[in-house]
Amino acid sequence: xxxxxxxxxxxxNLNAAVVRGSTLDSPTVRYLTDGHKLEGVIILLRPGRxxxxxxxxxxxxxxxxxxxxTALSTRWDLRSIANELHGDMLAAQAEQMxxxxxxxxxxxxxxxxxxxxxxxxxxxxxxxxxxxTDVDVVVEFKDDLFTTARITKDEGEIAAxxxxxxxxxxxxxxxxxxxxxRPVANGAKGSKAYLLAPDGQPLTVRYVKQFxxxxxxxxxxxxxxxxxxxxxxxxxxxxNQGNPDDRLELGKAIIFDFFPRPVxxxxxxxxxxxxxxxxxxxxxxxxxxxxxxVFKLVMETLEVGNRTSAYQSITCKYYESLNYPTILTAPGxxxxxVHGLAHGLGLEIHEAPSFYAYEGNMAVxxxxxxxxxxxxxxxxxxxxxxxxxxxxYCDEAGAFHSLTPFPKDLVLPVRK
Length: 416
What we know:
2 domains, 11 helices, Creatine Amidinohydrolase, Creatine Amidinohydrolase, Chain A, domain 1, 21 strands, alpha+beta
């Protein structure tokens, strides 16, 4: 949580932290500015003192709403500094930072954060190391200050995540109702029956995705990463987004993975449901029930303080007890259980903590954390895959709550 930042600075022996970026491209900037639209800002954080937001004069109104101390970037005008340095913009950015830190009396160990192209970031950090003679440039790769702070959410963040969850669930409910309402046409000899669109043509994945988009517009949601609506063999590849031309046939497994956020940015929701229209083949039903058993086992055994990696191991061992291959004993397998059980969720779809079982993963389940639980089985050669995913919140009392109440029925009824 934000209230932990001073402690995290102290744990890292940092005299200050500098964050560069914009609200739209840096989750850390959005986190610190409460989502107010700001471009190209520099944020200076020092223990026990208000944050300083250095911003463009055109954005002074939004900057004032953040509650931070504000300063105009024109005080250290980058173009003027670049002119002094004969147009060398890299040297100018480093010199601008030197002047900012000097004016605020910052020296010693300073951590640098934010998003950007890897080459540009490396070039700037290298130049800063040369330019900042009174500053030790500190960078973190794993479990950095803000990744760690964002693992746990405060009441305002949880309220925002509950809100987007409600809207996401409403979209899924509208989609399920639409699919169940469509008439069914018999397929040609040897092929499956399928749903009809309002124009009398086969209802396709393209139609479904357009419907999802329209429902998102109504709910004030956007899908920066699209969505997954994959049928049959495509559902057997976890991140296959689905073939737009596929028609929705009865009895074929559908994986619908939906991960929207509010329009303009904010906290994500992430949910997956597996459906079969009208009926489920026995093989799909068995895999689905086995996956539901894993889901319930994990939910029943979640406990604050437990290593997150333990739940990946539990999942693999349970699946293997049922004779499914998993990445625990068959690394790289593309059938069976092929991915991680869970991931943190927030301003990015995939955040800390990691639930993967690897040496060095010391993450534990924490109060205030929000994460997914998403076991699944995949058999593209057999023409199906199944996955169940809810978003789970651990409250301050250590109780776990699903933010994804939409039913987990495998069979979606269709019109007779």
